[in-house]
Amino acid sequence: MTQKDHPQPKDRFRVRPGAPLAGTTTVPGDKSLSHRAVMFSALAQGASRIKAWLPAGDTEASLRAVQALGVQVERHSAHELTIHGGAFTQPASPLDLVNAGTGIRLLTGIMAGQPFESVLDGSEQLRRRPMNRIIQPLRLMGASIDGVNGGYAPLSVKPSALRGIGYTMPMASAQVKSAILLAALFADGETTVTQPGPARDHTERMLAAMGARLTVDGNTIVIQPGSQLEAIDFTVPADISSAAFPLVAALIIPGSDLTLTNINLNPTRTGLLDVLQEMGADLTVTETGLEAGEPVGTIRARHSTLKAVRVGGEVVVRMIDEFPIFMVAALAAEGETFVKDAGELRVKETDRIAVMVAELAKMGAAITETEDGFYLFGPQMLRGAQVYGHDDHRISMSLVVAALAAEGDALVNDARCAGDSFPGFADVMRGIGADVTVEVVPDEG
User: Fold this and answer.
1) DSSP 333-390
2) Ranked by mean pLDDT, which of 190-204, 214-228, 366-380 comes out on top?
């Protein structure tokens, strides 16, 4: 599909390269935790006050969904809310999760245990994302769930009696694991989930903090039914997936020296940091404390001479959202970079392998796709061009970073989608020295 085949976006990033990045900044609250904060607080008895919450497109969709279920929400500011949880009522219309894959998969686990029928739906983009990975284990628990064409939204969920199961996951997935654990809160009998390797453990940490009877032994999680969640107050740490964009920019732009504060350093999320350090990145990571059971800290990134690396195995899960921006870093590295075991990238908001390869090619990059990854030889010098974000926040922001290290100005069409996870992206980048502005696209003709 060519860019002309896409609906014309209403805005774009204009990027002028050259300036080093410097100073100290932070990024918005963690997206994964912000989804869970809303849903788990809605289930909990009492009022939970949440600070530094991420008011992005995806998380706002989750918030509207719980409000449609009758949950009272006090909005103190864009980033601070109080959620009065404890009981759901049947929604008057389908729950619209827009583009939020995490939102629809976690909420389906919750709705499987409710005494009323519900429908979960979203955008055309979300309707293309596979849901059988949650439907199948939830059906093993007795859930009544029907999807379109066997496994796509909209999902129709009817009341049923859930039972605990022992489930071995075919692949590590925090969203699948979370859907099962949330349904298990309403099941009769113990539920055991065994994952083949590490995956994000935000659900386990937050459920335990809210009083769920849950134990973790290596890659096995056991949860008892009937756990009543209790309201808690907490501050959401900054999202390491959002931090990845200014961090990689600092590594590949000469003269840069950047410090990012209050970043979530959960070890199930720091795969990109490990790989970048293997590449020779000048990174200093300092843990400073805990927020809601999550380790947080400071990351200092300085311009570095990077060397190529091979990426595969368990680290892939720990950096799955960061592969678009990793591809940009790899283009600056000396030698052959080879990525495998990352086929999951093809069923994200877009096919992130194919889209990144195609858009970076417009900037002069030569990258070869494989079924489950890609390889390239670097370093490669990019040139400014007009590229397209494909309504995928991580694609759009990765292309901005690529343009900051290119020769000549660039236009990244579709700036709005960055707000799905990183509202104010251009403002943050300008604050550390990048020449990034948002423009309204003029009407043609």
Assistant:
1) SBEEEEE-S-GGGGGSSS-HHHHHHHHHHTTT--EEEETTEEEEEE----B--EEE-T
2) 366-380
Query: How many CA within 13 A on the CB side of residue 230?
Result: 6
107 vs 111: CA distance, rounded Å: 6
Angle at 167 between CA 161 and CA 172, to 5 degrees: 125
What is the separation of C-alpha 313 from the centre of its chain, rounded to a whole number of angstroms? 20
pLDDT of residue 399: 98
**Taking the model in full, what pTM does it have?**
0.89
Q: 367-404: per-residue pLDDT in tens? A: 999 999 999 999 999 999 999 999 999 999 999 999 99
Q: How far apart are CA 277 and CA 309, in angstroms?
A: 10
Instruction: Tell me the mean pLDDT in the region 246-259.
Output: 98
In a 3-state reduction of DSSP, which class is residue 294? strand
Cα angle, residue 419 at apex, residues 442 and 13 outer, rounded to 5°: 40
For residue 303 the two structure tokens come to 């311009």
Inter-CA distances, 96 with 30, 65, 295, Å: 21, 7, 32
Where in the sequence numbering do the catalytic residues fall? Answer: 321
Q: What is the largest CA-CA distance in the chain?
A: 64
Read off the pLDDT band of 7 (50, 70, 90).
low
Q: In what order do the strands lie in the sheet with 220-223?
A: 166-168, 191-194, 220-223, 214-217
d(CA 334, CA 302) in angstroms, rounded, equals 17
Residue 32: is its pLDDT beyond 60? Answer: yes
Q: What confidence tens digit (pLDDT) does each residue in 58-79 have?
A: 999 999 999 999 999 999 999 9
DSSP H or E segment with residue 210 = none
DSSP labels for 250-269? HHHSTT-EEEEEEEE--TTS
Cα 120 from Cα 196, distance rounded (Å): 29
Name the token pair of 293. 């059971």
Taking the C-alpha atoms of residue 324 and residue 302, their distance in angstroms, rounded to an integer, is 20
Helical H runs in 16-56? 31-43
> Which among 261, 274, 283, 255 has a CA at the least distance from the CA of 322?
274
Residue 48 predicted with pLDDT over 50: yes
CB atoms within 10 A of CB 145: 21
Closest CA to 118 of 72, 161, 69: 69
Q: 405-432 burial string, b = 16+ CB within 10 Å, else e? A: bbeebbbbbbbbbbbbbbbebbebbeeb
What is the spatial distance between Cα 173 and Cα 186, in angstroms, rounded to a whole number?
21
- Is residue 121 within 8 Å of 61, Cβ to Cβ? no
